[in-house]
């Protein structure tokens, strides 16, 4: 089973690098990557249709030019995907190319609070602005019954400009923690 999963994972990363825009689209939800992937798909589909379905509509040199355009777009997209992936690793993971956030979430879900907190601390040491890691840290603090510290961290988070898209989660967590504090007192 593990060998199959490794092959699938390898095939997935190959697909991310072969289709322009797919890697940043899947991993970060980038609008620009969505546009790049959609434009490439449109260009490829038009070229395939002009070559296979309606070959009489365009002269052979025009179809050849379309395939050259597809090839250049593909090559530029693959280079951009590889550069984006390299940039992402350089920026986010000084630990030999490993993103520690999935490991931290895994430890959190297993109930290994200390290990999860250590991993989150390493992430925040490298990227103090990482909102997902900060929210995970608050969850770890709540699970380890350090509600006052968790509330303090949430109030700090609430003041940040980058926390706008996380307002709902922050407010829900804050209400939960405040109820917990009231029940204890």
Overview of the structural elements:
- With 185 residues, the chain is mainly alpha-helical.
- It has helices at 2-18, 22-28, 31-53, 60-92, 101-110, 113-126, 131-143, 147-158, 167-184.
- The chain has 2 domains: 13-92, no CATH class; 101-184, Serine Threonine Protein Phosphatase 5, Tetratricopeptide repeat (Alpha Horseshoe), CATH 1.25.40.
- The chain has 9 helices and no strands.
- It is elongated, with a radius of gyration of 23 Å.
- It starts with a helix and ends with a helix.
- Mean pLDDT is 79; it is low at 1-8 and 87-95.
Largest sheet: none
- Overall, the morphology is elongated
Helix content: over 70%
Please identify the structural class as seen in this structure.
mainly alpha
Work out the number of β strands: 0
Task: Count helical runs.
Answer: 9
Radius of gyration: 23 Å
**What proportion of the residues form beta strands (DSSP E)?**
under 5%
Low-confidence stretches: 1-8, 87-95
Mean pLDDT: 79
Number of domains: 2
Distance between the termini: 50 Å
Tell me the layout of helices and strands.
Elements: H1 2-18, H2 22-28, H3 31-53, H4 60-92, H5 101-110, H6 113-126, H7 131-143, H8 147-158, H9 167-184
Question: Can you describe this structure in just a few lines?
Answer:
The chain is mostly helical and 185 residues long. The protein has helices spanning 2-18, 22-28, 31-53, 60-92, 101-110, 113-126, 131-143, 147-158, 167-184.
